[in-house]
Prior knowledge:
The protein is mostly helical. The protein has 5 helices and 3 strands. A 3-stranded antiparallel beta sheet has the order 1-2-3, with no helix packed on it. Strand 2 (about 140-145) and strand 3 form a beta hairpin. The relative contact order is 0.04.
Amino acid sequence: MNTQELTLNLQAYVDGELDAAQRAEVEKCLAKDADARTLVTGLRQLSEILKQGEPVAKVSDTREFYWSQIQRRIQAQEKAQPRSTESVSTALSWLRWLVPAVGVAVVAVVVTLQHTAGSAAPAQKGLVENKGQTEAGSTVFRSESEGVTIHWLN
Length: 154
């Protein structure tokens, strides 16, 4: 049993969460290991300290009394604020149709603009405006219309 597993078993032992077989195994370990006994003693002391320091809350009224007060407040608040679900649902239904429609319109405009830009200058797409060899053995391509300069090194 590794240290972490042993520690968890000792904690469960102190809390009374082990079955008979596990409890017997932990008690065998406690008989052999002084550090385990020290840990169990410390855990028991800590448990007692926590039990003593825990405040005890005593309420004179029953829980039904408190729940009835909560229920009355909820009902009073519901009466004070009438809901206008119809106006909210109408606005949401418009929004439910408007958002996809705007998205489709934006896509249509972008596709149309790309198509018009592509058909206006088809000759410029494949043009090589400046291509030449340099003395270092590299090739340079410049396209002012595309704003691109490419250097190929041989």
